[in-house]
Design brief:
alpha/beta; Rossmann fold; seven-stranded mixed sheet; four-stranded parallel sheet; 12 helices; transferase; ATP_PFK; metal-binding
């Protein structure tokens, strides 16, 4: 019998552990694999020989159910860029020597774009040396920017969180009879999917957010000020949603501080909301505040979308089935079906070579002509993804989650 390994990487979400639960559950139900092990802190756990036996750790359905609703990554994460074979072949030799030593037949990597890059490189090397280890990517990212998949696990729950937060801020800001502007900065460096999702907050009570700005189109500060002036006259208390990655026509970020760059070359942004707050205060003289939702939008496990968690679980389980069929170098995917019965998806897989290092932007048809709102087409796309809730188990008044295994804050 052969074993399989799984790891998680990149930024956390409320649904990535549901994908992990799907992988574990599928392995436990098949006779194709003997054991399933989890690498701690992504692919770096392999280099440090740090892994655990997940077959023993999640031996019951109850333990898997709790894992499904636990935010962040049970196995921990990493931000590690795998070099090319030409840059460092020794790294690949070490990885596949590890696979051979532990009788690994399949490796599942759960993550976003950079994780799919790692999976793609491992798959290419396996093919190059004639290794039979199957490499399958399992998608996740709150940014919803992976290509060849209708939407990514983690996005629906984050969208639900930002929309609910916007709705509650609409209630908060409506109680005073004075002009005010609240600018809400939402994650999204290159793609504005999450910021677009704030439009789901609109109800019969409130039209907030009254303005939405995405990084897919140029941001004009003069037009922004004019937009705000008009909305203050119309609504008195104005809420504005902006992506952290909004930039001007020259491609410069609208940020209070100069953006730094991570090891993948991605800009690390903060300050767009604060920049616009100062601009409104200086130019319009209106009471204004900025709110940066920051990591709250990706760790709201108590408010996760049931649709999101169930799809994440299925994508993880399907990855195991594909490996059993001898498939490798692919990412587990889902496609939206336009059926008469409403929202439906079908499952499949796509080539990692066509996914890694590409970005799926919000289509222009989802953005209005004035570039300060989203269209009905966007709402139709977004609304099904936030539907449903799981019944969260509470202890001492707080959500009861599975402890993160690699955390130094727990004892074992």
């Amino acid at each position: 019998m052969k074993n399989c390994f799984v790891a998680q990487s990149g930024g956390p979400t409320a649904a990535i552990n549901s994908s992990l639960a799907g992988v574990i559950s599928a392995v436990q139900k098949t006779e194709h694999f003997d054991r399933i092990y989890g690498l701690l802190n992504g692919i770096t756990g392999l280099f440090e020989n740090r892994f655990i036996d997940l077959s023993e750790h999640f031996a019951t359905e109850r333990s898997l159910e709790q894992l499904k609703t636990t935010p962040a990554m049970f196995l921990g994460s990493c931000r590690f860029q795998l070099p090319s074979v030409e840059e460092d072949s020794a790294v690949y030799e070490k990885i596949f020597a590890f696979f051979k030593e532990h009788d690994v037949a399949a490796f599942f990597y759960i993550g976003g774009n950079d994780s799919m890059d790692t999976a793609m490189k491992l798959s290419a090397y396996a093919k190059r040396i004639g290794s039979q280890v199957k490499i399958i990517g399992v998608p996740k990212t709150i940014d919803n920017d992976l290509v060849h998949i209708d939407h990514t696990p983690g996005f629906g729950s984050a969208a639900k969180y930002v929309a609910a937060s916007m709705l509650e801020m609409a209630y908060d800001t409506s109680i005073y009879k004075l002009n005010s502007v609240t600018i809400v900065e939402v994650m999204g460096r290159d793609a504005g999917w999450l910021t677009a999702a704030t439009a789901l907050a609109r109800t019969e009570f409130s039209d907030a957010p009254h303005l939405i700005y995405l990084p897919e189109v140029p941001f004009d500060t003069e037009q922004f000020l004019e937009d705000v002036r008009e909305k203050v006259i119309q609504y008195n208390n104005v809420l504005v949603a902006v992506s952290e990655g909004i930039r001007d026509a020259q491609g410069n970020y609208i940020s209070a501080t100069e953006a730094t760059v991570d090891q993948f070359g991605h800009s690390q942004l903060s300050g767009a909301g604060k920049t616009l707050e100062r601009l409104v205060a200086r130019e319009l003289g209106i009471k204004v505040r900025s709110v940066e939702i920051n990591i709250l939008q990706r760790c709201g496990g108590h408010f996760a979308s049931r649709t999101d968690l169930e799809e994440a679980f299925r994508l993880g389980a399907n990855a195991v089935a594909y490996a059993q069929e001898g498939i490798s170098g692919m990412m587990s995917t889902l496609t939206r079906e336009n059926g008469a019965e409403g929202y439906q998806v079908s499952y499949g897989y796509a080539d990692l070579n066509e996914i890694a290092n590409r970005v799926k932007s919000v289509p222009l048809s989802f953005i209005n002509e004035a570039h300060n709102d989203v269209t009905d087409e966007a709402i139709k796309y977004l609304k099904p993804l936030i539907q449903g809730e799981y019944e969260t188990r509470y202890q001492n008044g707080l959500p009861c989650y599975t402890p993160i295994y690699c955390s130094s804050n727990i004892s074992r």
